[in-house]
Structure formats: C-alpha cells, structure tokens
Amino acid sequence: MADFDVHLDEENELRFNITTEGTDTTASISTRMVLETSKMDFMFQGTSIPGGEVSVIVPSLKGVLNEGLYNTRLEVLVDDRIFTPLELTANFKQSVKVVAEAIVTRRAAPPSVRANVVRVNSGKKSRPVKKALTETPNSTKINKKNSMKGAGGTRNEELRDLLRRVIKKQG
Known about the structure:
Blueprint: E1 4-7, E2 12-17, E3 29-36, E4 41-49, E5 53-58, E6 68-78, E7 81-93, E8 113-119, E9 129-135, E10 140-145, H1 153-170
Parallel strand pairs: 1-7
Antiparallel strand pairs: 2-5, 3-4, 3-6, 4-5, 6-7, 8-9, 9-10
C-alpha cells in the first residue's frame, strides 16, 4: 500500500516537517529525498521553508519511470552524518486527463433518378402518353399519368434499364 501518490507527468511538491535536536546553531543541515528503483536511485534536494518545513520538488518523470510503487526515504544531513527519519512507499501514476473532440458528419441522401417518356402516335391525332419512373437504389416506383391501354411492360423495362445505366455512371 502506498503512503502517498506522485504524478509521473507533472511536477510534484512534497513537504515534510523536520525537527533537529542536539545540534548547535552552526551545524550545516540539508535534506534530500531518495527514490529507489531496481536500476538506479534518484535524489531530489530539499529546500528549507520557514516554520520547520522542507519542500522537495519531484520533476515530471514521464518516460523515465513506469507506473508503480517505489520505496522512498527522506535523508537529513547534519554536518558529516546522514539520518533517515522517514521511509515511505510512493505510488507513481499518470494523472487523469479527459479529451473530447466533436465530429460532425453529414448523411448523404441516396441518389434519385427520374425519367419521363412522352410518346405521340404520328399520323393519328391522339393525346400524348406520359410515364414517370423514379428509381432509388432501394426502391422502384412507377407512376402512370394518362396511360393508354397497350403501352406495355416492355417500355417500363427499357426505362428501368436506362435508369440503371445512369445510376451506374453516377456511382
């Protein structure tokens, strides 16, 4: 179990309360935090803050360390002696980030083809015959307006064939 969390992709500031006893006022006191890994140890210098605190800045270690638990210790150096008053386990992890992106797509309407055929009988005075054929890829609809008897299915088949060729050239 980790004693504290550190973000790998951000700079982290850790603060510790330090009290030294039995030293004179001329003693040289410095602090550092040691991060132990299987390959090497990292040391981060501490900075004294008024009130007996020490601040340790841990820079971003993204690309240097993997996520996981690591042993750390705080070392206090008094003159020529090293004291280790604190040993902790740190959990190094990525910070949580959420990215959202809007994607706008337009739905294409299926192509539609409409053809009208007008046929007039020559020589006789007759009224024109109109046939309308609308065809989309999923359906075929035939509308007849003022159709004459005998204008049969072969004409509709010709229209469908013509429409298929037009659609094939468009697609």
